[in-house]
Amino acid sequence: MVTFLYYILSAYIAFIIVWNLVKSKKWQDELLYIIILIPFILRILRLK
Amino acid sequence: MKKIKTPTIRKSIFISFGLMVIISSGINFYKSRHMKEPVVMSPGVTQVKRLGQYFSGIAGTINDSHVYLLEGEQPGGTILVLGGTHPEEPAGRLAAWIFVENAMLEKGRLLVILSANKSGSTVTRLGGAYPPDYTIPTPWGERKFRMGDRWSNPLDQWPDPEVYIHYPSNQELAYVDIRNLNRTFPGRPNGTLTEKTGFAITQLIRKEKVDIVIDLHEAELQYPVISTIVAHERGQDLAAMASMMISGTEDFNIGMENSPPELRGLSHREIGDHTQAVSLLLESPEPMLDACRGRTDRKLLLDGKDEFLVKAYQHGLLFEKIDKNGWPIKKRVGRHTSSILQITELWTAEHSDKEIIINNVPKYSQLIKNGVGVYLHNPAEAPPVRLEWE
Fold first, then answer.
1. Interface test with chain A among B11, B23, B125, by most A beta carbons within 10 Å
2. Global pTM?
3. Where does B40-389 sit in CATH, by number?
């Protein structure tokens, strides 16, 4: 149950990052969002 | 025609970059996690079981590891060798591998687990930049092994608690050690994956009426418990004799230490306390584990050469010596094979009703002369019935 909630939380944070990426206007922020999104995606896909 | 805005193009480029990183690293991580290691079983292996047969709660999980049984023609005692309790200590796994691929039992039984915590063998230390695998050269080619970690893979057990409370002692331990198999013995049936694994091994020891358990490890040179046999109270005589015999007859020295009663969760303490078996743990030196090491790569893992550690030794900061020759894997594996053979010989000399006689396993001097690869056989030439995968 806790593990399931953890994955829900990870997916939610990934969604927020993507949302911020879409709304962002500064290229520095966009690049930063992409970089911090990578570990969340890898975890949601159960690759790392 | 609608014009594409510059920010959209820029974002698309960044997303493409992110996807490339995710795909390439994801493929790497997937391959590493699912890599299969061949085991060419010796004709001495009479059965292959799984941990799930001793505790159904672990059946079907990643830690439902193989248990290799080698049975002699004549009855006798039973010894269990644990490899891969800490998979990032490769000499332990390789020594166990050599027993499964070569040993022939004359009397008694030998049980071997190559991947006691298989989950831990599918990941490396997070942020540690460890190599995911390593290869051992052999006369017929190369054998590849997973590097592994000290702890179970977070993909299999997560999240960790703020403080890990060991069962059944209630001792408070570091949070991350709830994924450390050598802190979760004797385990519990309704616990985490790692606790269940410990419980399955404890059940195996009880059900198979194991007499001696030897847990194979490696240690940092900065750690005082190194090049030694750690023994439960009921194994102190055996370990002390083995230490003296090895240091007198082999080309290496090994010490002996008592298992601290207040340090809970370790195999040498809990297996001795909770089962009928005599519990011992062997430590050999692994420079790659030291915090002051240099570049962390496959070369360091296998040859154990590190200039920073030599410098630390010269300053008196280490508990084991090291020089420019390092600690090659054949030395570390040889220490384990010779120690196990010596322990069984001494056990047999003292227990005429529970003899354990193991043949065809190389000792330290043979491993130094021939290397590890000579004792690993070619899976391509093995008949399918003698081939297993870890």
1. B11
2. 0.93
3. 3.40.630
